[in-house]
Amino acid sequence: xxxxxxxxxxxxxxxxxxxxxxxxxxxxxxxxxxxxxxxxxxxxxxxxxxxxxxxxxxxxxxxxxxxxxxxxxxxxxxxxxxxxxxxxxxxxxxxxxxxxxxxxxxxxxxxxxxxxxxxxxxxxxxxxxxxxxxxxxxxxxxxx
Length: 144
Hints:
By secondary structure, the protein is mostly helical. It has four helices and no strands. It has helices at 10-13, 50-73, 93-104, 116-143. The longest helix has 28 residues, at 116-143. The protein is elongated and about 90 Å long.
């Protein structure tokens, strides 16, 4: 009598009297062993492909430009502002770019859109940022 973890095969069943299987592994995965485990300074970029990073960069520029145009076109941008502080609080293209970058990095910016259309665009951008960050985190965990 012996106890061991063995795979039941036809030629083994002729020689050994096996018990009834209680667990059956039907799926196996075969992967290539990595050549070498080299670390890189830019390893944080590997979880997403180059095309995804390019799409994120283009979307940052596009959303910043749209936000700038929305705040320039809308008459409600300066509603309720003190006339002396209008020059200081302008939502310029640099501020729009900072808003999009700081929101994708989950930080806060000083200026936020005041118009409803700008806030809706900002909300969609935050939702997009949340999905991108969740995807990046999941892929990063898979690479470790």
